[in-house]
Prior knowledge:
Elements: E1 3-7, H1 12-23, E2 27-32, H2 38-44, E3 49-52, H3 58-67, E4 75-78, H4 95-115, H5 117-122, E5 127-131, H6 147-166, E6 173-178, H7 194-207, E7 216-218
Parallel strand pairs: 1-2, 1-4, 2-3, 4-5, 5-6, 6-7
Helix pairs in contact: 1-7, 3-4, 4-6
Amino acid sequence: xxxxxxxxxxxxxxxxxxxxxxxxxWEVIAANRTPLKPMDFVxxxxxxxxxxxxxxxxxxxxxxxxxxxxxxxxxxxxxxxISPDEGRAPEEMSPEQWEEVLLTNTYAPLHLAALLxxxxxxxxxxTVAAVSSLAASATLYDVPRQFAYxxxxxxxxxxxRNLSVEWKSWGCISLMLxxxxxxxxxxxxxxxxxxxxxxxxRRIIDNATPDASGLxxxxxxxxxxx
Length: 226
């Protein structure tokens, strides 16, 4: 049975990833700061494994890696992140606001991926996928403000690109995924359901070859330009 680990699987896109992989017969490890609801276990099956994980706490990441020592992971989905209200003008940004966003959206995924490298090496698919955003694209995205968020996602993409080079020798596939404008509690103005978005992203993960590694893929299978 293949194994997928998903961070931030307690709601929205992460929960839908967990649901779809569980339906496909995978072992699902949900790494969450906020616990799943009891009804989620009923929906996903009681074979689901949940581990507490706080992206901004290095000790939490280390404990997760310790608990999973020797456990092969086929696919690692780095979904946990924050999207704070960023209507601030440039002169209103503070170091504290930058630090929170960059630590959560950029450093934490890299730190966890590094800790779980042995697990990925032992897996069959050897794939790590980070949920990014169109906001990372300097070519296509022209929404104002959002300075820290956009910077964090652009940095996340560069980090994943670096991993595609760093881990190429042992067959790892490193992907960035654009989920599209998904309608969630955080984004009620979205036009896609979580199911539609995740179905598309799973298709990319399932069919990814080494040639796809290091690229930013939209849920629709189209590469997002830098």
